[in-house]
Amino acid sequence: MKSPLRILVINPNSTQAVTDGLDTAMARFRASGNVTIDCVTLHEGPPGIESQQDADGVIAPLVARVRRHEAEYDAFVIACYSDPGIHSVREVTSKPVLGIAECGLMTAMTMGHRIGVIAILRKSIPRHLRYAAGMGVAGRIVAELPLEMGVTELGDESRTMARLVEVGRTLRERHGAEVLVLGCAGMAAYRARVEQQVGVPVVDPAQAAVAMAIGRAMLA
Fold it and tell me: What is the dihedral of CA 160, 97, 61, 72, to 10 degrees?
């Protein structure tokens, strides 16, 4: 095992603000000095992964990026809630490859039985639910509700925060969610404030994925 561990977090969309938010969210993992976490933007991607075609379109560049840097890192994180290309990427490296949707849901299951997910757009929800069904965990999700804001709109802090709290409270009060998962990497900067205002645990899936990536790399 290398010391320090090196983790590459790839934002599959081309919006640098999302990558910057991810980078800030990783600060706690860097505090020990034993982990290096590089957050990078996939400039070949669309501004946001908002459809199945968007998700499918970044598979080839994701594979190429991981193949190019395979020797430099101990683990890779795909920082999009669709986990685009995760199986293809796993075929080109022997290192751990973690997707934030998979890790976010698995982490949430350790924190509560009834999971609520906050999506960016209503049209994203069928894609997310197909993936949860493929994981075999759809029965633990009581509801997934949208902000109806695109990825590039999440930089509007006051509007995004207001919608996150509104949707989070609806998931808690109307659907009985015991834990919430933020269904987009672009929401990372809001996790702690949403948790405080909604009153239930909130999982940032990118943090969950990096935590798992570190654990996997340490066991290698």
Answer: 110
Whole-number average pLDDT of the chain: 95
Q: Which residues is 15 bridged to in the sheet?
A: none
Q: Residue 156 — very low, low, confident or very high, per pLDDT cuts 50/70/90?
A: very high
Reported CATH class of domain 5-99+207-219 = alpha beta
pLDDT bracket for residue 2 (50, 70, 90):
low
By CB atoms closer than 10 A (0-12, 13-18, 19+), residue 28 is exposed
Residue type, 161: M
CATH class assigned to 101-204: alpha beta
Same topology for domains 5-99+207-219 and 101-204, yes or no? yes
* Tokens read off for 30: 């860097």
> Are 163 and 147 spatial neighbours (Cβ–Cβ below 8 Å)?
yes
The domain limits of the chain are 5-99+207-219, 101-204
List the structure tokens of 10.
Answer: 């790839």
pTM above 0.90?
yes
